Amino acid sequence: MEGNTESLKAPIIVDIGSGEIKAGFSGDEKPTIIFKNYIGEPKYKKVLRAFNKEAQEINDQYVGEDCDKYMGIIKLRHPVKHGIFSNEQDILSVFNYLYAKLGINSEEIKDHPILVTEPLLNPYTNREKIAYSLFENVGVTSLFFASQPILSLFSTSNTSGTVLESGEGVTQSCVVYEGYSIPGSFERFDYGGADVSEYLKTLLKKKGYQFYNSTEFRLVNEIKENSCFCFSNNINADINDVKKGLNKNPLNYYLPDGTTVSIGEERLLAPEVLFNPEIMGKEYLGLVDIIIRSINKVDIQLRQKVYENILLSGGNAAIKGLVEKLNGELKNKTYKNLKINLNSPPHPEFCCWTGGNIISTLEIFKKMWVTKNEWTEKGPKILHIKSI
After folding, report:
1. 12-31: pLDDT as tens digits
2. Does the global pTM surpass 0.90?
3. Helix, coil or strand: residue 276
4. Rounded to 5, what percent of the chain is helix, strand, coil?
5. Per-residue exposure over 1-10, b if at least 16 CB sit within 10 Å of its own CB, e if not
6. How far are the Cα atoms of 64, 199, 214, 248, 282 from residue 220, in angstroms, in the given order?
């Protein structure tokens, strides 16, 4: 079984993000499970025991939505930061939780190959840690690693174009031509939605709202997701007038303790971190400059074609107005007659998972899995040979 991928059952596609994990079976229309990528650890075990008297035992860790019922008496942390797992124990915790949610028991794990997504230029050591944990401790017999932006482009049925993917902890870009990524075009910066939330927290602090611990920061993240948007020149309004309007008619957000957070121009200011990371003291390129530099690294004969198909994917692409703002600023920073076509699907956060789903159904892909036997015989280097 370990060396024969022909007899295996439906592969599992796992899109690992710093903020969320999406997982499901190959051939399905969308991920079966989506859960927040955090681990909760009890602050006070006696309080937790009293809070949940029906529990037979108190766990040292809770993953994903299992944390929700203990909010306030557990501390949250992210096992994945900027696309990298902190340690092997966290890998086991996340994947054991994932298998349980998919309804796969320990005996069935060996029957399902697993495709794991990762950011561009991720350290090989992270890939090797995941493979070691899955092969040696979980019982997986076949796996494959694939880069997130490349899979995102495949989800659109295109084989050439530029992909800008911006998630919770990583923003990355690359050019793909006729199905092959051009390594020299890779751009990656370790910032994203978490920085928007952090800046929003700073802005709210200036208004007198304090968010101290990990569970409270989760509330800031929810405020961001539900209220923030980007200003685009396409709306034919002056930005200062928009700010005045937001401050005059603020949005009230109600916290669990009954506190009301009144949010005005902060809704507009927070996402600006993505276009100007220097706001947070980071010497990184903004979204517009990342795309331009990525494309400028490829041959001049290819640039027009890849400008005509720019895909924006990842969770940040769902921010209202971000696509329009990015498109407008791209046109302002490039030459006049350049044809630019930037698009984002209705659910940009699913692009990567969908691309993995598509390639896993191809007949030729059955020969691409890294098997447990290959891992044992050839060592970790086989992971880096068999990957995209």
Report:
1. 999 999 999 999 999 999 99
2. yes
3. coil
4. 45, 20, 35
5. eeeebeebee
6. 18, 10, 10, 22, 21
